[in-house]
């Protein structure tokens, strides 16, 4: 099978990203599953800050391979074309930097200094299946940072930065440049770019129905027939609820 079409060939509706910022990753996961996509959750990452704002943006990727003693001495950071540094300086504003560390968090993939620079440049967030050093400082940024865990060792001890803006795996999920990344307290989802408009359009009605379901459960209604709405009367009550609450 061919790779997905390039992001430049799949324009997004201007309403898509703002809509996705209001939709939970749980809802997105369910909607993707309904479309046959079961492997779009980035495993093993969580926000460094408990009160982190929701993260939404197109993916800009950085791929690491295993480090080796002859390729990753400390002097490597002096190279002006070091891919990690170049990624920080070229990630477009509004994009999420997604780093593939082979799910190895025994060393950092970046630290608070580089992430602060990304934040100043307008980055929408960071996702890494590796570690983050100076994690307390990174957690204070007004930019969401999702990582496997804090990790003090420099990336050079385990990770060799090699490719920018190429297809990667992060936390077991395929990420193609331009895919839409959404992160919240439940973790991080990758929305294939060609599905983003549909997911954004379908998410709000689904969450509206779930708000109704929660109110029904709180007043003592049983789940069977309610969620999913196999009892026809459920949808009748839902329409009445929308009218009474002026929602939808």
Structural description of this entry:
The chain is of the alpha/beta class and 248 residues long. It folds into 2 domains: 15-192, Glucose Oxidase, domain 1, CATH 3.50.30.40; 199-245, no CATH class. It is 30% helix and 24% strand. It contains 7 helices and 14 strands. The chain has helices at 16-20, 25-34, 83-90, 112-120, 135-139, 196-218, 232-245, and strands spanning 41-42, 46-47, 55-66, 96-100, 108-111, 125-128, 131-133, 145-147, 149-150, 159-164, 168-170, 173-175, 180-184, 187-191. The strands form 3 sheets. Strands 1, 2, 3, 4, 6, 8, 10, 13 and 14 form a 9-stranded mixed β-sheet that branches. It has a 3-stranded parallel β-sheet with strand order 5-7-9. It has a two-stranded antiparallel sheet with strand order 11-12. Helix 3 (83-90) links the parallel strand 3 and strand 4 (96-100). The longest helix is centred in the last third of the chain and has 23 residues, at 196-218. It is elongated, with a radius of gyration of 20 Å. The two termini are 40 Å apart.
Q: Unreliable runs, pLDDT <50, ≥5 residues?
A: none
Output the structural class.
alpha/beta
The main β sheet shows up as:
9 strands, mixed
Radius of gyration: 20 Å
Query: Can you tell me the CATH architecture of the largest domain?
Result: 3-Layer(bba) Sandwich
CATH fold descriptor of the largest domain: Glucose Oxidase, domain 1
Strand residues, percent: 15-25%
CATH superfamily of the largest domain: Ribonuclease E inhibitor RraA/RraA-like
How many separate helices? 7
> What is the CATH class designation of the largest domain?
Alpha Beta
Residue-averaged pLDDT, rounded? Answer: 97
Order of helices and strands: HHEEEHEEHEEHEEEEEEEHH
Number of strand elements? 14
Question: What characteristic shape results from the CA principal axes?
Answer: elongated
Helix fraction, binned, reads 25-40%
Note the gap between the termini.
Answer: 40 Å
Question: Total domains, how many?
Answer: 2
């Amino acid at each position: 099978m061919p790779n997905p079409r390039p992001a430049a060939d799949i324009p997004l509706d201007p309403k898509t990203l703002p809509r996705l910022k209001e939709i939970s990753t749980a809802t997105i996961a369910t909607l993707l599953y309904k479309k046959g996509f079961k492997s779009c959750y980035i495993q093993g990452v969580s926000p460094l800050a408990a009160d982190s704002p929701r993260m939404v943006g197109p993916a800009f990727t950085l791929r690491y391979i295993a480090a080796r003693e002859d390729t990753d001495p400390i002097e490597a950071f002096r190279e002006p074309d070091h891919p990690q540094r170049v990624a920080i300086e070229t990630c477009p504003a509004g994009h999420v930097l997604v780093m593939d560390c082979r799910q190895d968090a025994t060393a950092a993939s970046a630290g608070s200094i580089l992430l602060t620079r990304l934040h100043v440049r307008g980055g929408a967030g960071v996702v890494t299946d590796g570690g983050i050093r100076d994690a307390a400082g990174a957690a204070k940024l007004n930019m969401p940072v999702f990582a496997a865990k804090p990790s003090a060792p420099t990336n050079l001890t385990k990770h060799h930065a090699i490719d920018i803006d190429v297809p990667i795996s992060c936390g077991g999920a395929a990420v193609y440049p331009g895919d839409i990344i959404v992160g919240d307290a439940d973790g991080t989802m990758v929305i294939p770019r060609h599905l983003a408009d549909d997911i954004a359009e379908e998410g709000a009605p689904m969450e509206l129905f779930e708000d109704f379901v929660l109110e029904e459960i709180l007043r003592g209604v049983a789940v069977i027939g309610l969620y999913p709405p196999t009892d026809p009367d459920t949808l009748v009550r839902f329409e009445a609820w929308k009218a009474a609450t002026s929602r939808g």
